[in-house]
Amino acid sequence: MKKVPEKYRKRLMGLIPIERIIAWNIPRPPQSLLQELLSYDGLTPTFSDILDSMGIAGAIPGSVLKPVLSGKKIAGPAVTLKYVPERLTPAQSFHEKARAKLADRDAYALTEPGDVVVIDGGGRGDISAMGGLSTLIAKKYGLTGNIVDCGVRDVEEMRNLDYPVWSRGVTPITGKFRFEALEVNGPVVCAGVSVHPGDLVVADDTGVVIIPQKFIGIVVNQAIEVSKREKKLVEAIEEGSSMDQLKKILDPKKW
User: Fold this and answer.
1) What is the mean pLDDT of residues 232-246?
2) How far apart are CA 168 and CA 122, in angstroms?
3) Strands 200-204 and 59-61
4) CA gap 216, 144 in Å, rounded
5) Partners of 190 in the beta sheet?
6) d(C-alpha 119, C-alpha 147), whole Å
7) Cα torsion angle, 45, 46, 47, 50, sign
8) N or C: which end of the chain has fewer CB within 10 A?
9) Model-level pTM?
10) What angle do CA 136, 139, 143 make, to 5 degrees?
């Protein structure tokens, strides 16, 4: 049996077998880099274009994973949680007084402030894997947001807590006795995109983008440079600069 690091011993609730926690620690980019990144707008389109140029599939449209709260943008390393369908029906589980197998709070126990929890629920927008209590605990842990490839509920509480969540759907139907936690901090699939622990998650009203961990430095620095140039271009347009001046900032073919 795996030994639980002392750091997490008092935080875990025993919701998932210890052997299903694949990694205790994940790589995390400097918070200063993420704060600089978040000072710019239009993040997910910029990242999507950069990943396209690198041949990496990492962008998820906002029409697929919709923001529960509009006007939010987040960036942080991924802590992952994978669910599979529970074999018993909910009625049979209630009849047998079975134990619920959701494990979001144990996933939160492995996080650091600023992390993003990515939940793979197989795209089941009709079943919730996150509600009001889950949101409250995530907020208390200082997480920056959740990406949920299935349904969520208690969205009023998410909005009241001002906690950013992107989800496949909104539903009253609980995932208790419908989902079983398979792994924490192993590879997952989120809306068709592969996500590994420590990958950088960037999300805004336009969508969600996953940047593989080994490319974070290169991609983020490139995104910051692109954002600086576009900000300068916008300012020039608003000031009524000539076309020749605009061309010097950025070739119109790249707009």
Assistant:
1) 75
2) 10
3) unpaired
4) 18
5) 193
6) 6
7) positive
8) N
9) 0.91
10) 140
